[in-house]
């Protein structure tokens, strides 16, 4: 176990496997309930303070509209369908960009992880490419491909490609050599080696890369929509900003945050399901 | 050991893809395959670089960007370490603030920009605050995880030795969590640089200088050579910052003795 965990700690972006002993179910239920309840006082206090600040006009409502106003605006935007339309457009862009970036990133990561020759040639270039933030490419891309959908898809793809390629590569590299040697002893075929040794061992870091990739994709989407778009959630934010309607801005920000959170949750839940075997193994 | 000695012998094969790209770029420009206003030949980018270096404009822009970057990073990192330690040390703080923190960190960073622009205006204050916010999250998260990783046995030894609360923090918690905190700081530095460029793009102030400002101005003037040069400079600074930080990290962690 210690050798294995030292391999794991080489990579800072690996998921941390909490090794808490499982208490009895009834106690676990109560403590989970307690935790859930304790999460609320702080945000509620902030919300209350915010509402008080707005009611007593400690800050002008132009600068900070009250939570009630924001909620009202949210409802208005929902009723008019503006919110759903823009959200759908944003999600659609992320879906396309992320699929393209994830596929390319996975292929690149596998190529570098399994073939040392490919790695020697491509890794330094890839590393440099990864260092230039996605947004750094924006001005150049804007001139080369214009400000259409292609720009958004390319940028989102780039943002998700990097962490996925990097984690796939690192995950494949970090497969413990002892396990590979054991498989050799048992004369595993190449396919068996991949299917039963490499993939199970490399899966957690790869999946973590997918999570990072999706988070980065969402980040890049909002960035590109703020700079160059006429639809989408980022545009809604810019639009509200231009009209000095902070309630629109805040409502859109809440949706951006909620979707970012939901995307990550979905992947976390899938991870838990896919890794059920792992818990049983120990 | 063999891998270490191989790393010392420079591996030039990694230079093959960029060299090929450069060659292709050059040949394409020479043979007129590309529209020179859209994709200027490499020598034109070089000329722009020379001009920028000569006039000192590059250094002024670089200094302005780096000052914003490091100022925001320092603010964000300090706040991040503070919150991370608090959440790591106190169960109550973790239960009360943790969920809010984990939810807020999901808000896409750039979504803060319009809010900051209204609250603080289009100026360096809002830029630095934005950079601080972007460095804050990774540092806080890593510090929290590092402090959580301090074992009960280590705490008990500190108790046996009668450490005061202050000693516990400076002699036990911070050194024990140092590797994770440094990883977080490294990530924070990467984010801060991304945010610096983002802030210069998205919070433009008239007459301000910075690498991002130069690139945006180059785009407005359709000066592709300037934009390409600016991007290379931005990437170069990112790589350099990372290198310097890695050095510093190794130096700071040398007491651990086990660092590669």
Automatic annotation (TrEMBL), chain A:
Coiled coil, from the record: none
Classification via SUPFAM superfamilies: MetI-like
Domain ABC transmembrane type-1 stretches: 87-267
Topology within the bilayer: Multi-pass membrane protein
Entries under InterPro entries matching the protein: MetI-like (IPR000515), MetI-like_sf (IPR035906)
Keyword Cell membrane tagged: yes
Any single biological process term in GO: alkanesulfonate transmembrane transport
Compartments, as annotated in UniProt: Cell membrane
Any single Gene Ontology cellular-component annotation: plasma membrane
Keyword Transmembrane applies: yes
Transmembrane segment boundaries: 32-53, 94-117, 216-239, 246-263
Keywords recorded for this protein, A-Z: Cell membrane, Membrane, Transmembrane, Transmembrane helix, Transport
CDD domains: TM_PBP2 (cd06261)
Similarity annotation: Belongs to the binding-protein-dependent transport system permease family.
Name of the molecule in the record: ABC transporter permease
Species assigned in the record: Chitiniphilus eburneus
From TrEMBL, chain B:
Transmembrane segments: 12-33, 70-89, 101-122, 128-151, 172-194, 220-245
Superkingdom of origin: Bacteria
UniProt keyword annotation of Transcription regulation present: no
Annotated membrane topology: Multi-pass membrane protein
Cross-referenced InterPro entries: MetI-like, MetI-like_sf
CDD domains for this protein: TM_PBP2
Location of the ABC transmembrane type-1 domain: 62-245
Family per record: Belongs to the binding-protein-dependent transport system permease family.
Protein name, as recorded: ABC transporter permease
């Amino acid at each position: 176990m210690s050798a294995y965990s030292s391999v794991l700690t080489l990579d800072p972006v690996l998921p941390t496997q909490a090794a808490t002993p499982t208490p009895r179910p009834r106690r676990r239920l109560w403590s989970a309930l307690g935790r859930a309840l304790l999460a609320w006082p702080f945000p509620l206090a902030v919300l209350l303070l915010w509402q008080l600040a707005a009611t007593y006009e400690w800050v002008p409502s132009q600068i900070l509209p009250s939570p009630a106003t924001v909620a009202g605006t949210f409802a208005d935007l929902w009723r008019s369908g503006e919110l759903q339309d823009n959200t759908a457009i944003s999600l659609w862009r992320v879906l396309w960009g992320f699929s393209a970036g994830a596929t390319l990133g996975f292929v690149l990561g596998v190529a570098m992880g399994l073939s040392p020759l490919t790695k020697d040639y491509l890794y330094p270039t890839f590393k440099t490419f990864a260092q230039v933030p996605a947004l750094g490419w924006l001005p150049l891309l804007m001139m080369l491909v214009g400000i259409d959908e292609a720009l958004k898809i390319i940028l989102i793809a780039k943002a998700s490609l990097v962490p996925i390629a990097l984690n796939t590569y690192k995950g494949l590299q970090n497969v413990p050599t002892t396990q590979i040697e054991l498989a050799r002893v048992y004369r595993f075929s190449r396919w068996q080696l991949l299917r039963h040794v490499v993939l199970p061992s490399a899966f957690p870091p790869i999946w973590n890369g997918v999570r990072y990739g999706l988070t980065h994709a969402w980040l890049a989407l909002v960035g590109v929509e703020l700079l160059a778009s006429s639809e989408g959630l980022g545009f809604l934010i810019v639009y509200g900003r231009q009209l000095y309607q902070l309630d629109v801005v805040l409502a859109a920000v809440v949706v951006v945050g909620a979707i970012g959170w939901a995307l990550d949750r979905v992947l976390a839940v899938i991870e838990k399901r896919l890794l059920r075997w792992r818990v049983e193994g120990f | 050991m063999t891998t270490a000695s191989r790393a010392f012998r420079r591996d030039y094969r990694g230079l093959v893809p960029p060299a090929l790209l450069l060659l292709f770029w050059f040949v394409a420009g020479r043979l007129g395959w590309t529209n020179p206003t859209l994709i200027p030949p490499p020598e034109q980018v070089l000329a722009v670089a020379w001009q920028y270096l000569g006039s000192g404009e590059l250094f002024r822009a670089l200094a302005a960007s780096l000052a914003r970057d490091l100022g925001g990073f320092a603010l964000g990192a300090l706040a991040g370490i503070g919150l991370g330690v608090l959440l790591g040390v106190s169960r109550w703080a973790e239960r009360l603030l943790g969920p809010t923190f984990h939810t807020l960190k999901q808000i896409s960073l750039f979504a803060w920009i319009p809010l900051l622009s209204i609250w603080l205006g289009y100026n360096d204050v809002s830029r630095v605050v934005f950079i601080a916010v972007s460095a804050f999250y990774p540092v806080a998260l890593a510090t929290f995880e590092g402090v959580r990783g301090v074992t009960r046995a280590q705490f008990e030894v500190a108790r046996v030795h009668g450490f005061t609360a202050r000693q516990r923090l400076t002699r036990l918690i911070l050194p024990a969590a140092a590797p994770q905190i440094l990883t977080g700081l490294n990530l924070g530095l990467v984010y801060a640089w991304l945010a610096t460029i983002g802030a210069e793009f998205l919070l433009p102030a008239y007459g301000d200088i910075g690498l991002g400002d130069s690139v945006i101005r180059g785009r407005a003037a359709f000066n592709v050579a300037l934009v390409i040069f600016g991007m290379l400079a931005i990437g170069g600074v990112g790589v350099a910052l990372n290198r310097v930080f890695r050095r510093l990290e190794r130096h700071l962690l040398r007491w651990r003795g086990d660092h590669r």
